Amino acid sequence: MSVQRLKIGIAGLGRMGKRHAxxxxxxxxxxxxxxxxxxxxxxxxxxxxxxxxxxxxxxSDYNQMLNHQGLQAVVISTATCVHAEEALAAMEKDxxxxxxxxxxxxxxxxxxxxxxxEARPHLKVMCGFxxxxxxxxxxxxxxxxxxxxxxxxxxxxxxxxxxxxxxxxVKYAEHSGGCFADMSVHDxxxxxWFFGENIPVKSISASGIRAVHPGLxxxxxxxxxxxxxxxxxxxIAYYFCSRMMAHGQEDTTEIIGTEGKLVVNGNPQAxxxxxxxxxxxxxxxxxxxxxxxxxxxxxxxxxxxAAVLDNTKLPFTMTSALRAVEIGSAxxxxxxxxxxxxxxxxxxRIEKPSL
Length: 355
Description:
Residues 6-122 form the Gfo/Idh/MocA-like oxidoreductase N-terminal domain. InterPro entries: Gfo/Idh/MocA-like_OxRdtase_N, GFO_IDH_MocA-like_dom, NAD(P)-bd_dom_sf. Belongs to the Gfo/Idh/MocA family. The longest helix is centred in the C-terminal third of the chain and has 22 residues, at 289-310. The mean pLDDT is 95. The protein has 10 helices and 16 strands. The termini are far apart. Helix 4 packs parallel to helix 5 (107-118). It is α/β, with parallel strands linked by helices. Helix content is 37%, strand content 26%. The strands form 3 sheets. It has an 8-stranded mixed β-sheet, covered by helices on one side. The protein has 2 domains: 6-128, 3-Layer(aba) Sandwich (Rossmann fold), CATH 3.40.50; 135-294 and 324-350, 2-Layer Sandwich (Dihydrodipicolinate Reductase, domain 2).
Protein backbone atom coordinates (compact mmCIF):
# COMPACT_ATOMS: atom_id res chain seq x y z
CA MET A 1 0.00 0.00 0.00
CA SER A 2 1.45 3.37 -1.04
CA VAL A 3 1.83 6.10 1.58
CA GLN A 4 0.31 9.48 0.79
CA ARG A 5 3.07 12.08 0.70
CA LEU A 6 2.85 15.86 0.75
CA LYS A 7 4.88 17.67 -1.91
CA ILE A 8 6.73 20.56 -0.31
CA GLY A 9 9.15 23.31 -1.23
CA ILE A 10 11.85 24.77 1.02
CA ALA A 11 12.25 28.56 0.88
CA GLY A 12 15.74 29.53 1.95
CA LEU A 13 18.80 27.29 2.24
CA GLY A 14 20.71 29.11 4.94
CA ARG A 15 21.66 27.34 8.15
CA MET A 16 18.08 26.66 9.24
CA GLY A 17 16.84 26.05 5.71
CA LYS A 18 19.44 23.33 5.19
CA ARG A 19 18.31 21.64 8.40
CA HIS A 20 14.68 21.81 7.34
CA ALA A 21 15.56 20.39 3.93
CA UNK A 22 17.42 17.44 5.44
CA UNK A 23 14.67 16.77 8.00
CA UNK A 24 11.86 16.81 5.45
CA UNK A 25 13.91 14.83 2.93
CA UNK A 26 15.23 12.09 5.22
CA UNK A 27 13.33 12.20 8.53
CA UNK A 28 9.74 12.95 7.54
CA UNK A 29 8.37 9.87 5.76
CA UNK A 30 5.10 11.48 4.67
CA UNK A 31 6.81 14.45 3.01
CA UNK A 32 8.33 14.66 -0.46
CA UNK A 33 10.66 17.58 -1.05
CA UNK A 34 10.22 18.54 -4.70
CA UNK A 35 11.61 22.08 -4.81
CA UNK A 36 13.84 24.54 -2.99
CA UNK A 37 14.49 28.24 -3.43
CA UNK A 38 17.46 30.46 -2.64
CA UNK A 39 18.93 33.50 -4.41
CA UNK A 40 22.35 32.80 -2.88
CA UNK A 41 24.82 31.10 -5.22
CA UNK A 42 26.65 29.23 -2.45
CA UNK A 43 23.35 27.90 -1.12
CA UNK A 44 22.30 26.92 -4.64
CA UNK A 45 25.53 24.94 -4.95
CA UNK A 46 24.72 23.16 -1.67
CA UNK A 47 21.24 22.38 -2.99
CA UNK A 48 22.58 20.97 -6.24
CA UNK A 49 24.90 18.69 -4.31
CA UNK A 50 22.59 17.61 -1.49
CA UNK A 51 19.05 17.93 -2.85
CA UNK A 52 19.08 17.58 -6.64
CA UNK A 53 20.21 13.91 -6.49
CA UNK A 54 16.89 13.21 -4.74
CA UNK A 55 14.86 14.88 -7.46
CA UNK A 56 14.59 18.31 -5.84
CA UNK A 57 14.56 21.21 -8.30
CA UNK A 58 16.52 24.29 -7.19
CA UNK A 59 15.03 27.71 -7.98
CA SER A 60 16.60 31.16 -7.76
CA ASP A 61 13.17 32.83 -7.95
CA TYR A 62 10.62 32.26 -5.17
CA ASN A 63 7.55 32.83 -7.33
CA GLN A 64 8.81 30.34 -9.87
CA MET A 65 9.12 27.75 -7.11
CA LEU A 66 5.53 28.44 -6.06
CA ASN A 67 4.47 27.45 -9.59
CA HIS A 68 6.29 24.11 -9.39
CA GLN A 69 3.89 21.44 -10.66
CA GLY A 70 2.14 19.58 -7.86
CA LEU A 71 3.54 21.71 -5.02
CA GLN A 72 1.27 21.57 -1.96
CA ALA A 73 3.13 23.28 0.90
CA VAL A 74 6.01 25.64 1.60
CA VAL A 75 8.44 25.72 4.52
CA ILE A 76 9.79 29.27 4.85
CA SER A 77 13.20 29.79 6.45
CA THR A 78 14.44 32.86 4.62
CA ALA A 79 15.32 36.24 6.17
CA THR A 80 12.73 37.57 8.62
CA CYS A 81 12.11 40.66 6.48
CA VAL A 82 10.51 38.53 3.71
CA HIS A 83 8.68 35.93 5.84
CA ALA A 84 5.31 37.69 5.62
CA GLU A 85 5.34 38.43 1.89
CA GLU A 86 6.43 34.87 1.10
CA ALA A 87 3.74 33.41 3.36
CA LEU A 88 1.08 35.60 1.73
CA ALA A 89 2.28 34.66 -1.76
CA ALA A 90 2.14 30.95 -0.87
CA MET A 91 -1.39 31.22 0.50
CA GLU A 92 -2.50 33.06 -2.66
CA LYS A 93 -1.29 29.96 -4.54
CA ASP A 94 -3.43 27.84 -2.18
CA UNK A 95 -0.39 26.30 -0.48
CA UNK A 96 -0.02 25.25 3.16
CA UNK A 97 2.64 27.19 5.07
CA UNK A 98 5.08 26.54 7.88
CA UNK A 99 7.03 29.74 8.54
CA UNK A 100 10.00 30.16 10.83
CA UNK A 101 9.48 32.66 13.63
CA UNK A 102 8.73 35.49 13.56
CA UNK A 103 6.25 36.02 10.76
CA UNK A 104 7.25 39.67 10.89
CA UNK A 105 8.64 42.18 13.37
CA UNK A 106 5.77 44.49 12.43
CA UNK A 107 2.54 43.74 14.30
CA UNK A 108 0.33 45.06 11.51
CA UNK A 109 2.04 42.81 8.98
CA UNK A 110 1.64 39.81 11.29
CA UNK A 111 -2.06 40.59 11.58
CA UNK A 112 -2.35 40.76 7.79
CA UNK A 113 -0.90 37.24 7.50
CA UNK A 114 -3.24 35.93 10.20
CA UNK A 115 -6.29 37.42 8.45
CA UNK A 116 -5.17 35.87 5.16
CA UNK A 117 -4.90 32.47 6.87
CA GLU A 118 -8.31 32.88 8.51
CA ALA A 119 -9.80 33.62 5.09
CA ARG A 120 -8.50 30.22 3.91
CA PRO A 121 -9.52 27.79 6.68
CA HIS A 122 -8.75 24.81 4.45
CA LEU A 123 -5.05 25.70 4.61
CA LYS A 124 -2.73 24.82 7.48
CA VAL A 125 -0.65 27.88 8.32
CA MET A 126 1.75 27.65 11.26
CA CYS A 127 4.60 29.68 12.76
CA GLY A 128 7.53 27.51 13.85
CA PHE A 129 8.05 27.75 17.60
CA UNK A 130 10.23 24.66 17.99
CA UNK A 131 10.10 24.38 21.79
CA UNK A 132 6.42 23.47 21.58
CA UNK A 133 7.60 20.21 19.99
CA UNK A 134 10.35 19.39 22.48
CA UNK A 135 9.63 16.26 24.53
CA UNK A 136 10.73 17.82 27.82
CA UNK A 137 8.61 20.94 27.42
CA UNK A 138 5.64 18.83 26.40
CA UNK A 139 6.10 16.73 29.51
CA UNK A 140 6.19 19.89 31.63
CA UNK A 141 3.00 21.15 29.96
CA UNK A 142 1.19 17.87 30.63
CA UNK A 143 2.24 17.99 34.28
CA UNK A 144 0.93 21.55 34.56
CA UNK A 145 -2.35 20.54 32.96
CA UNK A 146 -2.60 17.59 35.37
CA UNK A 147 -2.20 19.93 38.33
CA UNK A 148 1.09 18.45 39.52
CA UNK A 149 2.40 21.83 40.72
CA UNK A 150 -0.95 23.40 41.50
CA UNK A 151 -1.63 26.72 39.80
CA UNK A 152 1.38 28.02 37.81
CA UNK A 153 2.06 31.62 38.82
CA UNK A 154 5.68 32.36 37.90
CA UNK A 155 7.83 31.52 34.88
CA UNK A 156 11.57 32.12 34.85
CA UNK A 157 13.00 31.30 31.43
CA UNK A 158 16.19 32.01 29.53
CA UNK A 159 17.69 31.70 26.06
CA UNK A 160 21.48 31.95 26.17
CA UNK A 161 23.74 31.57 23.13
CA UNK A 162 27.34 30.52 23.18
CA UNK A 163 29.75 33.44 22.93
CA UNK A 164 30.95 34.22 19.42
CA UNK A 165 34.05 36.46 19.50
CA UNK A 166 33.50 37.63 15.91
CA UNK A 167 31.13 40.43 14.89
CA UNK A 168 28.43 37.91 13.88
CA UNK A 169 25.94 38.95 16.56
CA VAL A 170 26.43 42.65 15.74
CA LYS A 171 25.75 42.07 12.03
CA TYR A 172 22.81 39.82 12.90
CA ALA A 173 21.28 42.50 15.15
CA GLU A 174 20.70 44.77 12.16
CA HIS A 175 17.82 42.55 11.07
CA SER A 176 16.94 40.43 14.13
CA GLY A 177 14.64 42.91 15.86
CA GLY A 178 16.67 42.74 19.06
CA CYS A 179 17.44 40.17 21.73
CA PHE A 180 13.91 39.96 23.15
CA ALA A 181 12.18 39.71 19.77
CA ASP A 182 14.75 37.22 18.46
CA MET A 183 15.70 35.13 21.51
CA SER A 184 13.21 35.60 24.35
CA VAL A 185 10.29 35.23 21.95
CA HIS A 186 10.67 31.47 22.50
CA ASP A 187 10.42 31.93 26.27
CA UNK A 188 7.42 34.24 25.79
CA UNK A 189 5.70 31.63 23.64
CA UNK A 190 6.28 29.02 26.36
CA UNK A 191 4.78 31.37 28.93
CA UNK A 192 1.63 31.79 26.84
CA TRP A 193 1.46 28.01 26.54
CA PHE A 194 1.76 27.46 30.28
CA PHE A 195 -0.40 30.42 31.42
CA GLY A 196 -2.88 30.45 28.52
CA GLU A 197 -2.48 32.37 25.27
CA ASN A 198 -5.26 34.86 26.13
CA ILE A 199 -3.83 35.96 29.48
CA PRO A 200 -3.68 39.81 29.44
CA VAL A 201 -0.45 41.68 30.06
CA LYS A 202 -0.44 44.27 32.88
CA SER A 203 3.07 45.72 32.60
CA ILE A 204 6.39 45.24 30.83
CA SER A 205 9.86 46.39 31.85
CA ALA A 206 13.40 45.55 30.73
CA SER A 207 17.05 46.38 31.26
CA GLY A 208 20.27 45.28 29.58
CA ILE A 209 24.00 45.72 29.12
CA ARG A 210 26.60 45.39 26.38
CA ALA A 211 29.37 43.43 28.06
CA VAL A 212 31.27 41.90 25.12
CA HIS A 213 29.65 43.34 21.97
CA PRO A 214 29.68 47.16 22.23
CA GLY A 215 28.80 47.39 18.54
CA LEU A 216 25.24 46.38 19.40
CA UNK A 217 24.62 49.91 20.66
CA UNK A 218 24.02 51.29 17.17
CA UNK A 219 21.08 48.88 16.81
CA UNK A 220 19.69 49.59 20.28
CA UNK A 221 20.44 46.03 21.32
CA UNK A 222 22.26 44.31 24.21
CA UNK A 223 24.22 41.10 24.64
CA UNK A 224 22.68 40.48 28.06
CA UNK A 225 19.18 41.58 29.04
CA UNK A 226 16.42 40.85 31.53
CA UNK A 227 12.72 41.47 31.08
CA UNK A 228 9.77 41.24 33.43
CA UNK A 229 6.19 40.78 32.26
CA UNK A 230 3.41 41.12 34.80
CA UNK A 231 0.05 39.63 33.84
CA UNK A 232 -3.40 40.53 35.11
CA UNK A 233 -4.58 37.87 37.55
CA UNK A 234 -1.37 37.72 39.58
CA UNK A 235 1.18 35.97 37.36
CA ILE A 236 4.70 37.04 36.41
CA ALA A 237 7.32 36.01 33.85
CA TYR A 238 11.03 36.79 34.12
CA TYR A 239 13.22 36.47 31.03
CA PHE A 240 17.00 36.45 30.65
CA CYS A 241 18.75 36.39 27.30
CA SER A 242 22.48 36.37 26.64
CA ARG A 243 24.91 36.23 23.72
CA MET A 244 28.02 35.46 25.79
CA MET A 245 27.78 32.04 27.41
CA ALA A 246 31.38 30.74 27.43
CA HIS A 247 30.46 27.06 27.79
CA GLY A 248 27.70 26.68 25.18
CA GLN A 249 23.96 26.91 24.68
CA GLU A 250 21.91 27.14 27.87
CA ASP A 251 18.14 27.34 27.49
CA THR A 252 16.41 26.73 30.81
CA THR A 253 12.85 27.19 32.06
CA GLU A 254 11.43 27.09 35.57
CA ILE A 255 7.68 27.06 36.19
CA ILE A 256 6.72 27.76 39.80
CA GLY A 257 3.27 26.81 41.01
CA THR A 258 1.28 27.03 44.21
CA GLU A 259 2.16 23.42 45.05
CA GLY A 260 5.58 22.88 43.50
CA LYS A 261 7.75 23.70 40.51
CA LEU A 262 9.04 22.22 37.27
CA VAL A 263 12.49 22.81 35.80
CA VAL A 264 13.32 22.06 32.16
CA ASN A 265 17.01 21.66 31.29
CA GLY A 266 18.15 22.84 34.70
CA ASN A 267 21.50 21.08 34.22
CA PRO A 268 22.26 21.45 30.50
CA GLN A 269 24.25 18.64 28.92
CA ALA A 270 24.87 17.30 25.45
CA UNK A 271 24.53 13.66 26.52
CA UNK A 272 24.58 11.46 29.63
CA UNK A 273 28.37 11.30 29.93
CA UNK A 274 30.10 13.00 32.87
CA UNK A 275 33.91 13.09 33.07
CA UNK A 276 35.50 12.47 36.48
CA UNK A 277 39.16 13.52 36.76
CA UNK A 278 41.49 15.26 39.19
CA UNK A 279 40.14 18.52 37.75
CA UNK A 280 36.66 17.69 39.01
CA UNK A 281 33.48 16.45 37.39
CA UNK A 282 32.63 17.94 34.01
CA UNK A 283 30.04 17.47 31.27
CA UNK A 284 29.65 18.85 27.77
CA UNK A 285 26.73 21.01 26.71
CA UNK A 286 25.31 21.75 23.24
CA UNK A 287 27.18 24.43 21.31
CA UNK A 288 24.03 25.94 19.79
CA UNK A 289 20.23 25.81 19.86
CA UNK A 290 20.07 23.00 17.29
CA UNK A 291 22.15 20.76 19.52
CA UNK A 292 19.44 21.17 22.14
CA UNK A 293 16.32 21.16 19.94
CA UNK A 294 17.23 19.01 16.92
CA UNK A 295 14.58 16.40 17.60
CA UNK A 296 11.97 19.07 18.31
CA UNK A 297 12.41 20.27 14.72
CA UNK A 298 11.99 16.70 13.47
CA UNK A 299 8.77 16.34 15.47
CA UNK A 300 7.60 19.70 14.15
CA UNK A 301 8.09 18.64 10.53
CA UNK A 302 6.25 15.36 11.00
CA UNK A 303 3.33 16.92 12.88
CA UNK A 304 2.93 19.71 10.33
CA UNK A 305 2.77 17.18 7.50
CA ALA A 306 0.30 15.03 9.47
CA ALA A 307 -1.92 18.06 10.15
CA VAL A 308 -2.13 18.74 6.41
CA LEU A 309 -2.64 15.17 5.23
CA ASP A 310 -4.99 14.11 8.04
CA ASN A 311 -6.69 17.50 8.49
CA THR A 312 -5.91 17.53 12.20
CA LYS A 313 -5.67 20.62 14.39
CA LEU A 314 -2.36 22.46 14.57
CA PRO A 315 -0.77 22.43 18.05
CA PHE A 316 -1.11 26.21 18.53
CA THR A 317 -2.72 29.19 16.85
CA MET A 318 -1.30 31.96 14.73
CA THR A 319 -2.84 34.43 17.18
CA SER A 320 -0.61 33.00 19.92
CA ALA A 321 2.41 33.49 17.65
CA LEU A 322 1.36 37.13 17.13
CA ARG A 323 1.06 37.71 20.89
CA ALA A 324 4.59 36.40 21.43
CA VAL A 325 5.89 38.94 18.89
CA GLU A 326 3.83 41.72 20.49
CA ILE A 327 5.26 41.05 23.93
CA GLY A 328 8.79 40.65 22.58
CA SER A 329 8.54 43.95 20.71
CA ALA A 330 7.25 45.71 23.85
CA UNK A 331 10.14 44.29 25.87
CA UNK A 332 12.56 45.60 23.25
CA UNK A 333 10.92 49.02 23.44
CA UNK A 334 11.17 49.01 27.23
CA UNK A 335 14.84 48.01 26.94
CA UNK A 336 15.63 50.95 24.64
CA UNK A 337 13.49 53.56 26.39
CA UNK A 338 14.17 52.49 29.97
CA UNK A 339 10.47 53.03 30.70
CA UNK A 340 7.92 50.60 32.09
CA UNK A 341 4.96 49.98 29.78
CA UNK A 342 1.46 49.50 31.17
CA UNK A 343 -1.70 47.89 29.77
CA UNK A 344 -5.32 47.71 30.91
CA UNK A 345 -7.18 44.43 31.35
CA UNK A 346 -8.38 44.57 27.74
CA UNK A 347 -4.80 44.75 26.47
CA UNK A 348 -4.86 48.44 25.59
CA ARG A 349 -1.74 50.42 26.34
CA ILE A 350 -2.12 53.09 29.03
CA GLU A 351 0.07 55.85 30.38
CA LYS A 352 0.72 56.12 34.10
CA PRO A 353 2.00 59.36 35.63
CA SER A 354 5.55 59.38 36.93
CA LEU A 355 5.87 59.83 40.71
